[in-house]
Specification:
mainly beta, 119 residues
């Protein structure tokens, strides 16, 4: 696989988006998330419009002064329900850059618990 990941910290309802992933999709000013109809994939894409489904990416994320996290208890709850994730844990999901180079598809079925020993 590659080094594209997204992390969900369910206990606090936060999503950590790696800066390198944002750079790969063109350093967007805004992003949005879309869940596939079968619930197996999450698409994060560059988004131009300011509306209720977009999240602003602060400009200082790209100069290394801060990381980027989105607070969304609702999205965390939806994904936890869909995949029977434990709300006490955090999960890292691998992704792939799409051909349009403006979006990344994360495979929710491949979620791994962060910091838990493998069996």
């Amino acid at each position: 696989m590659n080094d594209i990941h997204i992390s969900f910290y369910l206990r606090v309802g936060r999503i950590h988006i790696f800066t390198e992933t944002l750079r790969l999709i063109g350093q967007p000013k805004r992003i949005c998330f879309l869940i596939s109809s079968d619930g197996q994939s999450l698409l994060m894409r560059a988004y131009e419009t300011r509306d209720l489904k977009s999240h602003k990416v602060p400009p200082n994320v790209y100069n290394g002064r801060r990381s980027f996290e989105v607070s969304s208890c609702k999205l965390c709850e939806i994904l936890a329900d869909l995949h029977s994730w434990d709300l006490k844990h955090s999960y890292r999901i691998p992704g792939v850059l799409m051909q349009d180079r403006r979006s990344v598809r994360f495979s929710l079925a491949e979620a791994e618990v962060i910091g838990k020993e493998s069996s």
